[in-house]
Specification:
By secondary structure, the protein is mainly alpha-helical. It has one domain (20-171). 81% of the residues lie in helices and 0% in strands. Helix 3 packs antiparallel against helix 4. 25% of the residues are buried.
């Protein structure tokens, strides 16, 4: 694991981009393959565009993680959080709530814009359902994520995107 820590420490944006490009795309493709069998769900150019879109999202998320951490630390430094939220699991929870309520909706909206460009359509259908995942999935998931050392947080967040993609893809009604 030393190579991974070195990689994400020395190349934070490239590692963020690559982790999300691979895992975010996998989270989108895997449920389609499970539901449809061997049939590939996207055209080649769409898959390439999705890889790029997820990579861009990874960089945005990296900035969001760093910026929101600074925000929560500043709140704690100014005694604007209860003591229980200033360390350990409480801090991880506070950071998760802040990132998912202040950053999450805009990030999901941006991701929907990317999807609309790739699909060559304009639709915000289901965005409310996506936003609800911030409450029931992402806040608990990121509480776990932010309880880990910083070097592992973005990688786990990318892995959570595979988990959520499978949950959403496998529970969606058949078309």
């Amino acid at each position: 694991m030393d190579w991974y820590v070195t990689w994400v420490t020395e190349s934070p944006l490239v590692s963020a981009m690559l982790q999300f490009a691979v895992l975010g795309t996998l989270g989108e493709v895997l449920p389609h393959l499970v539901r449809r069998g061997v049939r590939w769900p996207f055209k080649a150019w769409q898959l390439a565009a999705k890889v790029v879109a997820w990579g861009v999202l990874g960089v945005i998320i990296k900035y969001g993680f760093v910026g929101t951490r600074g925000f929560v630390v500043a709140l704690a430094d100014h005694s604007l959080l209860p003591d229980v939220l200033t360390h350990g699991l409480g801090f991880a929870f506070a950071l998760s709530v802040c990132i998912n309520l202040f950053f999450g909706p805009q990030m999901m909206f941006f991701h929907r814009l990317e999807e609309n460009l790739i699909q060559r359509r304009w639709s915000m259908a289901g965005i409310e359902k996506a936003w609800l995942t911030l409450l029931w999935f992402w806040i608990p998931a990121h509480t776990i994520t932010f309880s880990l050392p910083v070097e592992f947080q973005l990688g786990l967040a990318a892995l959570w995107s595979v988990v959520l993609g499978c949950i959403m893809g496998l529970t969606a009604p058949a078309k």
